[in-house]
């Protein structure tokens, strides 16, 4: 934010000094309403224009500046407004840095949440694998129990047959059955 003073005549004891400064569009319209700034002329300057001619341009918004020509009686009034502009700029930069810090914190929290979600997904996957393994073992266990029951039934049948056979044998042996 620089102030360029230009003497209108060699002897400026009777004439005000013309200052040129770059301001935001908002501040330039504000300054136009101030009584200390007489005969203010506002125009857009294209910074890519090397000659600096005050022609009305429509540059890209990134390159848009407002240049104000002031006729004022003392340099202090424009310095005061330049200081206000600088304070506004620094407070904007401070807000911007706070927003960036907040975004960084939110990005960090988002990354932690993603890691937690991935961990939970892996845990769920491992539990599903364990459940499938338990089901297969359960089915295998059920098949084993069914086979064991079948063998046990056969063994009972054989024992029953043997018992009946021995009873019949003893009945024959005792002569009770002929």
Number of domains: 2
Estimate the helix proportion, in percent.
Answer: 55-70%
Which segments are poorly predicted (pLDDT under 50) over 5 or more consecutive residues?
A: 1-20, 36-46, 56-72
What is the straight-line distance between the termini?
Answer: 134 Å
Q: What oligomeric state is this?
A: single chain
Strand tally is: 4
Radius of gyration using CA atoms only: 49 Å
- The pLDDT mean sits at 68
Order of helices and strands: EEHEEH
Major β-sheet strand ordering: 1-2-4-3
Could you explain how this protein is built, in words?
By secondary structure, the chain is an alpha+beta fold. The protein has two domains: 1-73, no CATH class; 75-171. The chain contains two helices and four strands. The chain has helices spanning 25-32, 75-174; strands at residues 4-6, 17-23, 38-45, 65-72. The protein has a four-stranded antiparallel β-sheet with strand order 1-2-4-3. The longest helix is centred in the C-terminal third of the chain and has 100 residues, at 75-174. Residues 1-20, 36-46 and 56-72 have low confidence and may be disordered.
Summarize the entry for a quick read:
By secondary structure, the protein is an alpha+beta fold. The protein has two helices and four strands.
């Amino acid at each position: 934010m620089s102030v360029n003073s230009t003497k209108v005549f060699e002897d400026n004891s009777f004439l005000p000094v013309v200052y040129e400064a770059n301001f935001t569009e908002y501040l330039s319209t504000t300054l136009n309403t101030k009584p200390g700034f007489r005969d203010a002329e506002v125009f857009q300057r294209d910074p890519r224009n090397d000659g600096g001619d005050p022609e009305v341009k429509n540059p890209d918004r990134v390159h848009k500046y407002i240049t104000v020509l002031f006729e004022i009686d003392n340099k202090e009034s424009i310095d005061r407004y330049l200081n206000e502009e600088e304070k506004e700029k620094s407070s904007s930069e401070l807000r911007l840095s706070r927003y960036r810090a907040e975004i960084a914190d939110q990005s960090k929290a988002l990354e932690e949440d993603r890691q937690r979600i991935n961990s939970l997904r892996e845990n769920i996957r491992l539990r599903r694998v364990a459940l499938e393994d338990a089901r297969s073992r359960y089915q295998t266990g059920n098949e084993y129990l069914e086979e064991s029951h079948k063998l046990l039934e056969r063994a009972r049948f054989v024992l029953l047959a043997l018992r009946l056979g021995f009873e019949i044998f003893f009945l024959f042996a005792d002569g009770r059955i002929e």
